[in-house]
Amino acid sequence: MSGHGEAQPMTARKSGPLKGVAEVPGDKSISHRALIFGAMAVGETHVTGLLEGQDVLDTASAMRAFGAEVARHAPGEWTVNGVGVGGFREPADVIDCGNSGTGVRLIMGTMATSPITATFTGDASLRKRPMGRVTDPLSLFGTRAFGRQGGRLPMTVVGAADPVPVRYALPVASAQVKSAVLLAGLNAPGQTVVIEKEPTRDHSERMLIGFGAELVVEKTAEGNVITLTGRPELRPQRVAVPRDPSSAAFPTCAALIVEGSDIMVPGVSQNLTRNGLYLTLVEMGAEIEFQNPREEGGEPVADLRVKFSPNLKGIEVPEERAPSMIDEYPILSVVAAFAEGTTVMRGVKELRVKESDRIDAMARGLEACGVRVEEDEDTLIVHGLGAGGVPGGAVAKTHLDHRIAMSFLVCGMAAKTAISVDDASPILTSFPIFEGLMTGLGADLARG
Ligand SMILES: O=C(O)C1=C[C@@H](OP(=O)(O)O)[C@@H](O)[C@H](O)C1
Ligand SMILES: C=C(OP(=O)(O)O)C(=O)O
Fold first, then answer.
1. Active site located where (predicted)?
2. Strand 19-21 vs strand 223-229: parallel, antiparallel, or unpaired?
3. pTM to 2 decimals?
4. Which of 108, 281, 292, 355 lies 20 to 30 Å from 139, alpha-carbon distance?
C-alpha cells in the first residue's frame, strides 16, 4: 500500500537484561515467493508461517489482481489457487506494491512474458528505486516498459506476446533481478539461462524445483549458471515458511549489546546465501551457540543461544560475504559501534538503493549518537566505542526504511541515553510483532 499513514515516533531506552525466547515471524523472501509461485501453479498451494507484513500482504493483493485466488484461513495459514504458468489475466487497476522492491520486481518478471499490460506503483520510497535493472533483462524476452525518468515507478509493463528465452549474466549481485528473469523464463519456450558471479539468496531456485520446474544450477568458473526449462506445469505445494534470519538479526544483536542478556532465537536459517551476519558476529567475538541443527521448510536451521558479549572486536567484513548479509549491514553497524576497534564494511554500494540510502541513513544516525563513522560510495567504516560506550541521545531519521528504524531502536536499548526514531511505522512491512517481541524480552521501548 503506498498510502503512508501518520509517522509513528518510537523511543528505546537503556534496557535491563533481555531474557526469553525470540520467535520471529516467517521469512519475507520466501513468503513473497510462496504466493507468486503458488499463483503460477495449477491447483491449491497451502502455506503455513506466511509473514503477514505489509510487503507480503501487498503481493497477496497483486496476485488476486492477476487472477489467482488467495485466502487467509488462520494466522500465517494461507491458500493460493493458481492460474498456471502464462495464465495471468490483465489487472483492472494499478498494482500497488507499497514499500516492497522484492514484490514489484518479482511480479514484473512474472507477468513479463504474458500478453497483458500492467501498471505498477509504490510508496515514496519504492518510487525512488531503480527498476531498469529488471526491465533491461526483461526487454530481451520482448517485454516493453515505460516508467518515469531513471526507470522509476509508476511504470507500465507490456508483456511479450511471443517471448523468446534469454541468456543473461547479472551485472549486479541481486536475487531480485535473478528471480525476475527466472520467473519471466517460466513462460518463454526453451531454456532461459541466468549467470550469477556471486551467489545470492537461492530461494527461487529451491522453490521452483519444489514446484516441479526443470531447473539446474551448475557451479562454474564464471559463477552459478542457472538453466530453467520454460513452460513447465507447476504443481501446487505445501510450503512451511521458515523464520526470517533478517528479522532474527534484531533480537540477536540486541542481546549481544544489552548487558546481562541471554536469549534463545529458534529456527534461524543457516542457508549459506543468508547467514553472513551470523558468521561475522562470531568472528567479532559474539557469544552465540548454534544448537539443534536441522531442516525446517526446506532450509537448514539452528536454534541460537545468544548472550551479552562485552568483548566484541571490530573486523574487516569480507567483501564477498555482502550478498549473504545485504540487509544486515544496518544492524551490524550498530553492533560495530559497541565493539572495540574499527569495523570496515566494503562492497556495500547496493545499500544505497534499498528502501533508503542505508549507508547515509546509518552514518548520519550513528554520528548523531556520538559514533565516529567514515563512508564513501561503496564503504562504511564504524569506529567502535566498546560495550556500553555509545552516548545516544538523538532522534534518528528512518526515511520509510524498516531496517533503519529497528537498528536505531536496538541501538537505544544499549546506549547511555535514549534514542528515538522519527517514524517506526515502516517496521510493519517486515516485522509486525517487533515492538511486542522486544518488550517481551525486556526491552524498554515506547511509542512517542
Ligand atoms: O530476492 C529477495 O527476496 C531479496 C533480495 C535482496 O535484494 P536485491 O536483489 O536488490 O539484492 C534483499 O535486499 C531483499 O530484501 C530481498
Ligand atoms: C531491501 C529489502 O526489501 P525490498 O528490496 O523487498 O524492499 C529489505 O527487506 O531489507
1. 327 (proton acceptor)
2. unpaired
3. 0.98
4. 355
